[in-house]
Amino acid sequence: MKALMSLGALIGVAGLLLLGGMVLDVVPSTYIRLVEGYMPIQMLLEVACYVIGFTGLSYTLNAMGMAIPRFWQGIGFWVFFLLYLKYRMYPPIPFSVRAMYGTVSLVAVFMWVSASEEDWQKFKQPIMNVLDAQTGGNRLLRYLYLVLLPILIGGFSFNAMMPKSEEPIELRTVHPAPPASTKVHGKTYTLQTSQNPYRVNPEGKYDQEFSNANIVEQGMGRLMKPNANPWDDKNQGYLKYVREGGEIFYQNCHFCHGDNLNGRGLHAFAFNPIPANFTDPGTIAQLQETFIFWRVSKGGIGLPNEGFPWASVMPPWEQHLTVDEIWKVVLFEYWHTGYYPRTWD
Amino acid sequence: MMDSITQKAGIIAAVAFGVVLVSSAGYSSVSAQGLPEGFKKGDLSPEPSADMIEAGKRVYFTKCVWCHGVDGAGDGPGADRLWPRPRNFNQGTFKIRHTASGELPLFDAKKPIAGQNDLFETVTHGLPGSAMPPWEGILSEEQRLQVLSFVTTQLVKDRKFTDKQSETQTILQLADLKPKPATDESKKRGSELIVEKKCVECHGMEGRGDGNAFNLKDDWGFSIQPANWHKCWNFRGSRQDPYNVANIFRTFSTGVNGTPMPSFADNTTVDERWDIANFVSSLCERDTLGNPLPIDPLTDKPKINFVIPSDLVEGEIPADIEHEAWQKAPKRIVAMGGQITHKPRNFVNRIDDMWVRSLYNDKYIVYLLEWDDRTKSVAEGKLPWAPTQVNIDVKEQDPKTGEEGSIAAKQNNYTLYNDAVAIETAVKWKELPAPIKPRYLFGTNDQFPMDIVKWEADGSLRAFKGTGWDKDFEERDNYEEAMKLVKSEWKNGRWYVMIQRPVGNKKDQDYDEDTFFEVGQYIPTVFFAWDGHNGDAGRKMAVSAFYYTFMNPPVPQETYIYPVVIAVGVVLLEGWVLTRRANRKKGKTL
């Protein structure tokens, strides 16, 4: 038990040092990478690790006779969590969201310290001590609070009232509701019934199972299946079209969506909204192939208002590509990210 | 006994002599072996295993082939719309190295160690300023080493990384060389050395890459431009650490293979190279306090703030950039990308950022725009279209090399048009519920148009109304007289343009065409830029995202009153809590 707790303590100290380094900008916050697409679960795991570490740390300090009072433990944990959100999380979370998390964690800390009457007494004892001011130190503290609190609160409100020019927060719907049908190059496509004409097996039949068997493998790197190289000249059907789609992608799309389809292309930094990251499980993996066909054909200008058509630089690709080329690009995007398009059933 | 002592002494003396010899070899400018200062001979790395090469092929054909091509000749499907072009591996010519000029770069499939494995670092950190992304976090370390094993053994065809007959490794000992502190004295010496060593002939008098900018070619005959020292985040060798002088020191010591950039190892001492590196690094854009700009790790470019604050000045807005008001005005970087939404698309935009400042008074608002452009371009003769025309005959680049209109064939060979810049602001932006705006590219329609103020290098300043991306501009009557071109100057690779326009109001101006600039409001603003030397005209241009012009209001009186009231309230509250506690202790209840 003791050994286990010491190990916990070690984890706690190491974690605190790491976070401290990030706060002071000694350790970059990318030191331990947050893996794209898995950030939330990774964050929960990390916080769980910290909690285990703190339990161990508190136990060990207790055993060494240097117990930290419950009051400071509560405050310490809350402060830790706020710092963690601000300095560890990447991409950064906006203040409004951090404030929400902060409030929730404050409630959690209160529930923890007030779990039993005894705990609650222990927690509020230091506050009462300062209020009663029985000792010299506490009396000093009390006067300090008397003076500092009004100054601090006044200062904060002054800061809040000072006119500022912060970026207005604008919330955009990334996947707005699609129309029932869309007309591209003079032909109408019903989104519910249309199929990608290039998702075919070597015999030329629509075959989702065949194509699913040949997409790249999930996992680090998302590499192609060893015997499914789109650059093999002998390919017929699906893989041949993947390659043709790739050629179109790398002549037209990667400038924004990036060489790895992660939305980090050459021009991406200049644009807002930022280009979609197809490797994120929340984009094309969640959508039907016909939805992508509609979005690609009509581009930013064809979005409903909740999708910010005025700001999106996504081209209406019907101006640049043929229908066949658009279907091939869609095919390639699913192949390269290793996702299946969602089906209607 | 005696013998052994003399023997020992002899050995010690010999060792000491050896140490002196070796150490002096390391620190003279050119050693006995003919090595430049700071370099040491190294061994060639062993050949990667067949397994690594085979595994690397799989990585290559998933990720790299699209730009670098099936044979690694830098001719994949994506190659021809990229500038700089993807690397042709066949010749074994690599830019960023720790090895002497002309040598192969460091690569060892078993040692992914920073500073000892050039190619691994290139794949890990990418080549900023080009389309080569950082592969860290996408490919595992193992996968990066695998793909390099494949590239170095199968796609480098003219040279062999393991051939002791033809290849040598003379390695810059960067880890052992202590950087010289960037003192004023060191930077001053650096600034003299870049003239003496003729750096300025290509990189320009201010280091904006504008000297001899368009006569340089790489080993494959493609046009190539010298680096702009003011944008260190675009240095290919910056390794995602752009303000680190060691990266500049390395590039300067080893040269950039395949380009006209030579190695300066033979004609500079290590000390001189640090001075130059310190000076070059000091030129990179910094904030007002002289600190490096914060870099966004998602883009490896400076972080962007979409609000352009405008400060109030009393009386006339100064025309002199050195004036205190301009020096104090907050400066914002505006990122620019190619216009790739509608034809003709601009895949290679030469202008990738712009610095914007703004001041206003009761009548006017002035924008100061500064951007780097290697050439001053003014069209000769009359342009074949009217200034209002948007749908003009400019072809977009074809996707294949060698085609008449391809980038490779056209680079530096375009018809010369005017350099130009435009500020576009939303008209009637208050009528649209936030965040809705007119479309960024020349407005939505007649109902929600854009107010466009365009300056061209021929000295013209015009005002237009834009009613859609494919609609020709409507010229505005009389408005040009209300505007003023306060300044326009091209100097050493940078344009400085100051444009003044009325803030507008309902009484004097046209509500349907003018943007009214209201204090304390977020006014949607977009910037466009054209590089006349790049054949930019019409929709072939660089565009920004939506920014906001925000005219800082004077501080209202309440800001000083309310906090005091609140503080007094807190004092009263404190008194109440303390009294209550004291009464309770005494057993009294209220």
Fold and architecture overview:
Chain A is mainly alpha-helical. Chain A folds into 2 domains: 2-113, no CATH class; 181-337, Cytochrome Bc1 Complex, Chain D, domain 2. Chain A has 11 helices and 2 strands, in the order ααααααββααααα. Chain A has a two-stranded antiparallel sheet with strand order 1-2. Chain A is elongated. The two termini of chain A are 52 Å apart. In chain A, 32% of the residues are buried. The model of chain A has no long low-confidence stretch (mean pLDDT 89). In chain B, the strands form 3 sheets. In chain B, strands 5, 6, 7, 8, 9, 10, 11, 12, 13, 14, 15, 16, 17 and 18 form a 14-stranded mixed β-sheet that branches. Chain B starts with a helix and ends in a 5-residue tail after the last helix. The longest helix of chain B has 28 residues, at 558-585. Chain B has 5 domains: 2-30; 50-175, Cytochrome Bc1 Complex, Chain D, domain 2 (Orthogonal Bundle), CATH 1.10.760; 179-283, Cytochrome c-like domain (Cytochrome Bc1 Complex, Chain D, domain 2), CATH 1.10.760.10; 310-551, Sandwich (Immunoglobulin-like); 558-590. At the A-B interface, helix 5, helix 6, helix 8 and helix 9 of A face helix 2, strand 7 and helix 12 of B.
Q: Estimate what percentage of residues of chain A fall within beta strands.
A: under 5%
How many domains, in number, for the residues of chain A?
2
> Which geometry of chain B do the CA atoms define?
globular
* pLDDT < 50 stretches of chain A: none
Structural class based on helices, strands and sheet pairing of chain B: alpha+beta
CATH class of the largest domain in chain B: Mainly Beta
Mean pLDDT of chain B: 89
